Amino acid sequence: ATNIWTPCPFPSLPPSFIIPTWMADSGLGALEQEITALHDYAAVRYTNVAFVALILYDYVITIDTEVSRIWSLKWRLPKILYLINRYIVPPMLIFDAIVPAIYNLPESMCDFIAKWTPWPTIISLTTSEMILMLRVFAVAGDRKGVRYFLWGLFLCELAGWIALSSIVTKNTVGSPGGMLFPGCLFSAPTYFYTAWIPPVIFESILIIVTGYYASAYHWTKKGSSQTIQILARDSILYFLIIFCDISWMPFRQLCAHSTPAVLLSNLLIARFGRDFLGSLFIA
Question: Could you tell me the pTM of the whole model?
Answer without folding.
Answer: 0.69
